[in-house]
Amino acid sequence: MAKVTDPSKGGSLKDSLIGSATFSWDDNEKRNNIMFRVPRLIRWNDNIVVREDEIAVFYRDGKALTYFDRPDRYALTDINAPIVGTIVKALTGVQQQAEVVYLQKRAFDGKFGSKQPYQFRDPDFGVVNLRVFGEFRYKVGQPENFVNQFVGTLNFATSAEVEERIKEQMVVLIYNVVGEMKEQGMGVADFASSLMNIEQGVLEKAKDHFELYGILIDKVSGLYISLPEEVQKAVDTRASMQVLGTNYMGYQTGQAMRDAANNPSGGAAGVGVGVGAGIGMGYTMMDQMRQPMAGQTQQAGAAAAPPFGNTVKCPKCGTMNPPSNKFCSDCGTKFEADKKCPKCGSNVPGGSKFCPECGTPMGNKKCASCGAEVSAGSKFCPECGKPTQ
Q1: Which contiguous run of DSSP H or E holds residue 155?
Q2: Tens-place pLDDT, residues 147-178
Q3: Which helix (H) or strand (E) holds 339?
Q4: Distance in angstroms (rounded) separating the CA atoms of residues 165 and 254
Q5: Cβ-Cβ contacts under 8 Å for 123 (sequence gap 6 or more)
Q6: What is the C-alpha separation between 133 and 130, in angstroms, rounded?
Q7: Could you tell me which residues come within 8 angstroms of residue 315 by beta carbon, excluding any fewer than 6 positions away?
Q8: What is the pTM of this model?
């Protein structure tokens, strides 16, 4: 709070006009605060003390009129300034709203995090809900804009309110930059290698974005983009496959062999094979990993690898995947359940638009008469009974 020396404690109008108060910002209170509003209206001949690390903004009737950024004691006595509030009130009954707001010059560190997820449409993984977290450094760049916006427009009185507003705008900026980089081809698998570029993009946009608020953002660091657990696992698996130079089937085979070698009491040991089998399988795994790196195709590597459990073949690239996968771990194609052709009864792979046997369209269509959904191949509408062809 302010240190106030006020000799005019009540009394007549004459006492109020002659008396004056001296205001300064207490060092203990300003340690973690970027702003402080003097707790009463300014009157004729009041004094303010401005120190080296402070800026005092004179604010009247919703607008910052001037600011003092050099250390000194200032007596507010200009008849054109708002200090005549007491006189005006005595003569007309209207009191001018004249205030002083202190600001700190030094920079402050803050942390931000998204409250609501950002829906990112990825070509491989579909719609992914993202959350962002990080740190930033800010300070007052334009005192008049700062006071006009936060004190005048938003009517903020505390530094906590100011910082909360800055955090919200930082999240908006990051989502904006991520969206622009997505248009340039960035996907969720590229986030880890793109964090520095995202931070630089946010700093560039922050100059214009925060100018209205009188805020200068001079650092963004520690940016972290959180992915849903299942998507993060898929991204990690793809990264491991790229490092090993193998496809998904070869990767899963190697994982199974490693687990078997580390657990000699189960699996192969149950049929009389022991630790030696685990060691032998380890050499087999090394051979399989070496084949793709030697220049063989992924298809050949997949054919040489014995399957472990049930697998599902990707209809687009042919990679074998575990049945629990919702997306292909090699090309990212979304898996859909197989269907029966309504015309010839043949099995149609999920995601197909036409039957591979007779060419019948597999998508639903609408009845031309009533607009109801009609299954592909149906000759009559189930709602109105009229022919669909």
Answers
A1: none
A2: 999 998 998 988 899 999 999 999 999 999 99
A3: strand 339-340
A4: 51
A5: 187, 332
A6: 10
A7: 333, 349, 350, 351, 352
A8: 0.53
